Amino acid sequence: MLDIRRILCPTDFSDASRRALEQAGMFASWFGAAVTVLHVSHPPPVIEGPVSFAAPPAGISHASVCQARTALAESARLLRTAGIVVDELVLEDYDPEGRILEQAASINADMLVMGTHGRTGLGWLFVGSVTDHVLRKAPCPVLTVPPSASRTANPPFKRVLCAVDFTPPSLEAVQFALRLVQEGNTRLTLLHVLPDALSGEAPARDTPAHRRRCDEAALYRLRAMVPPDAWAFCEPQTRVLRGTSYRAIVEVAAGEGSDVIVMGVGCKHVLDRLFVGSTTNQVVRHAGCPVLTVRR
Predict the structure, then answer these.
(1) Which of these three, 123, 145, 167, is where a domain ends?
(2) Paired sense of beta strands 46-47 and 53-54, if any
(3) Which of 4, 202, 210, 248 has its CA at a distance of 20 to 30 angstroms from the CA of residue 77?
(4) Cis peptide leading into 155, omega within 30 of 0?
(5) What is the spatial distance between Cα 284 and Cα 116, in angstroms, rounded to a whole number?
């Protein structure tokens, strides 16, 4: 069973952040969890020269912080109306992703929920290494509500898609997905994507017989990832497809009407970094539903 008692939700007061806050509230209501709503304001810039000084004046920064606190209080009020315990926190820092990670560790967050969009506001989460930093370093599962998300279903979810690449983080993701399934009357799909000729990743000698053997082996491995006791409450569907990983994951999620995509991310190896920088980020960018990443 899942034990989620504290949720951290960063916000920049955009529409995307408001959707993420709604999702955080849904999880909090489901699990009886408390929510910490965090806003990180940029402090006044420092101009370097013969005499270094901050500009604009400190009063403007103070006004900005006061406005943020007012907006944060309104966001918190909406959650409190639903009976959720809420903490509000406004910080000033040039390193927002660092402060998010620090706060997640400081409050022992069980889940981090973020709204993401375009190039403004929390869009910085998808610039360069910041995405990699947040998704790989967060001390808890991260639920991202992507810019194209058309569905933000209320938990307990009815349809869960778990993307598997057979790495250790994938095993962690499967275990988390099974716990989600156990919480409600949920359909679980385990998906593995093999390369094909069109993706440019298939082996040179990719004969029909070789493809069939690989498909069968992958299906066997998917089924083997489900513990024997899990079959008592869940009979997951297992699927093996050919193509580019993120495209196949997004297409299956859309076709099945998935409420959430669960994926594992690593942090120790170069290949893990490449996986986070490509497949995970691309899924988050293109998925039509929230994406929950679990770090081993």
Answers:
(1) 145
(2) antiparallel
(3) 4
(4) no
(5) 9
